[in-house]
Write a structure and sequence with these properties.
6-stranded antiparallel beta barrel, 384 residues, alpha+beta
């Protein structure tokens, strides 16, 4: 009989065939395009004049000819559902904190967000980030939540407050995040185009136009729009957007859901599933701006894949999720012989950076039958 290592190529090939695709996409949900409506200016926190903005917003609300939907179909998100979600806050007097922006934990030290979240309407920078909390108004998640001061807020070097381009930033924390059941890093979507299936945005933003920010984490389901449709729905102010909508931006919407004020910088993500039912979040976009969050509104997102080189340079780390799927997990036995314990079956960059593999022992009879049928050889198994 030959050593098991001599049949390694055959075993791994068969295992790869059995595993199939690494991530499975859920069927997309079709949304109707809805009706057009008059757009108005930026709805997310920036450094523009707040009183003038409120005056114009009130004027728009007075003249609007449609009923407003308050909740936007948003659903409550629960602990552990979006472990990468970060709330970016401004500490006020009497130790109160205003969480005006969101973000995504992409390494244990850095949070991805929007560049316009670098200051509030008083031109004050944020100073703290909270992770692992789905209800900012209660103590329910305090045991697993972490509050970490901000060390640096790094805006894209080409971002300008007077423009709506390059709206992306990374926040460096004063210390590393400690992974737990409620906190984990997300992956970044590396493909040029946004996925065609349903996208999910999460945040602590307002539940409707003119309403207060929500202390409870909400999730909404959106569909990416074609660029030509997006351009028709979003006003392109010549001063703010002289190039119109760029390739590093994209739109998403639905008839009854949308991101709103306070969701700036938060993630728009696609969810992927492995064959064991485990869910992985991939950040496709960062909430940037959009039309007023009413029925059929449209949001504009910074395309993360357009900035991968810059992000990796700032965090000093590769964000690739390429893994040697189907590769052997083995130890040296004697001389040039190896003992194969299993095959890599899940991402290894996740929480705790643990490698998850499929053990070969439970599949011993199946493997032996396949190898014997193909090569008329038997495998050597060890239970130790």
């Amino acid at each position: 009989m030959r050593n098991i290592f001599t049949h390694l190529t055959v075993v791994l090939t068969l295992a790869n065939i059995a595993l199939g695709q690494h991530f499975l996409e859920q069927p997309p949900i079709n949304y109707t395009e809805g009706k057009s409506f008059d757009d108005c200016e930026l709805r997310f926190v920036t450094s523009y004049d707040q009183h003038e903005s409120e005056r114009k917003l009130q004027s728009w609300v007075t003249n609007i000819e449609m009923d407003l939907i308050v909740a936007y179909g948003g659903e409550r998100a629960y602990k552990g559902e979006f472990q990468h979600m970060a709330a970016i806050g401004w500490t006020r007097s009497e130790a109160t904190i205003d969480y005006l922006c969101g973000g995504s934990l992409i390494t244990w030290r850095f949070v991805l967000t929007a560049a316009h979240c670098s200051q509030d309407h008083n031109i004050l920078p944020p100073d703290t980030v909270r992770l692992g909390d789905t209800d900012l108004a209660s103590t329910d998640d305090d045991e697993s939540a972490q509050q970490i001061p901000i060390a640096r807020f790094i805006k894209h070097p080409q971002y300008r407050e007077s423009r709506r381009y390059y709206d992306i930033a990374v926040v460096e924390l004063e210390k590393n995040v400690i992974p737990n059941s409620a906190i984990c890093v997300a992956y970044v979507w590396r493909e040029l185009e946004a996925p065609g299936d349903l996208l999910v945005a999460v945040g602590f933003g307002a539940l409707g136009l003119g309403r207060e920010l929500s202390p409870i984490l909400q999730k909404v389901k959106l569909q990416a729009l074609d660029a030509s449709i997006c351009a028709k729905r979003i006003p392109t102010n010549r001063r703010q957007m002289p190039e119109g909508l760029r390739d590093d931006q994209f739109c998403a919407r639905s008839e009854t859901m949308d991101t709103c004020e306070g969701d700036s910088g938060g993630p728009l993500q696609t969810l992927r599933y492995d064959l064991l039912g485990n869910i992985f979040s991939f950040i496709v976009g960062v909430v940037s701006f959009g039309t007023p969050c009413v029925e059929g509104s449209t949001g504009v997102y910074t395309r993360v894949s357009s900035y991968l080189d810059w992000i990796e340079k700032e965090v000093n780390q590769s964000l690739s999720y390429e893994v040697d799927y189907g590769g052997p997990v083995m130890t040296k036995y004697v001389d040039k012989q190896f003992k194969v314990h299993g095959i890599v079956s899940r991402l290894t960059q996740g929480c705790g950076e643990k490698m998850i593999f499929t053990s070969l022992i439970p599949h011993r009879l199946w493997l032996e039958s396949i190898i014997f049928k193909q090569l008329h050889e038997r495998l050597v198994f060890s239970d130790k």
